[in-house]
Amino acid sequence: MCYDIKASLESQLKRAKRNNDVAAILEIEQKLAPYTDLPAHHKSGFAHPKLLIYTAQDPFKPIIAHWGLIPHWVKDSVLKNKLWNSTINARGETIAEKPSFRDAFKSKRCLVYVDGFFEHHHQDGEAYPFFIYNPDQSPICMAGLWSEWTDRQSGEVWTSFSLVTTKANAMMAKIHNNPKAKEARMPVLLNEKEAEVWLHADPRNPEQKETLDGLIRPWKEGELNAHPVAKLRGKSYPGNVPEITEPFQYEALNLAL
């Protein structure tokens, strides 16, 4: 799964900066960034933070979205609140069929750029958080789904997203060993070429649907780093501070990656 991420404005703007449009970048920094929850040194999906996502509507200009997809067909805020915590992640193998995600998979796929993500390792009744990131510290591109929902009472339009997950690779399987989970999972990660396909492919075309399905797979071995960090829950949690991703040593932890 992926319930905790780190996302800086710099990483979230990686795609926007590819066009070298200084004016566009300045506009995003001045008009969008102040309304997000960036910098997100550590943010939990259950807090539904506002981040930047990229959609096919304007592939290089991000929009603001809450983490936790609200399907467009939700009738009221009561149902929205019941569903919200269950749509932080979307299981990649079933997104084409699940009512909460199938419409978004057809036409509202998105990209979410982060510095890295957190996952917990379970040992002897304790949960030890790990930070997972690219070895060169470059931003990670995650596959997502997005939606727009209108609150019928207020008329407010909520934009929201979910991160797509898949089976874990070998390293992530060692870390994500929650005994309550049916299997180890990880977010679907994309390289630049795959990101274009994820945004623009049409699943109504059988060949393109097959290509999209092929992107929902474990990330390649040896292309992610991980280290334990301080607790992300409880009284000792330091909060959304830059130091949250610094390596932390636990005497009792016994895990070789």
Number of helices: 7
Helix-strand sequence: EHHEEEHEHEEEEEHEHHE
For the largest beta-sheet, the strand count, sense and barrel status come to:
5 strands, antiparallel
Strand order of the largest sheet: 2-1-7-8-12
Kindly state the percentage of residues in helix.
10-25%
**Rg calculated over all Cα atoms:** 18 Å
Overall morphology: globular
Number of strands: 12
- Strand portion: 25-35%
SS content category = alpha+beta
What is the first-to-last residue Cα distance? Answer: 19 Å
Average pLDDT for all residues: 95
Enumerate the spans where pLDDT stays under 50 for 5 or more consecutive residues.
Answer: none
Helices, strands, pairings?
Blueprint: E1 4-7, H1 9-12, H2 22-32, E2 40-44, E3 50-55, E4 63-67, H3 77-84, E5 89-91, H4 102-107, E6 109-114, E7 116-123, E8 126-133, E9 140-150, E10 157-167, H5 170-175, E11 185-187, H6 192-200, H7 206-215, E12 225-228
Parallel strand pairs: 4-10, 5-10
Antiparallel strand pairs: 1-2, 1-7, 3-4, 3-6, 6-9, 7-8, 8-12, 9-10, 10-11
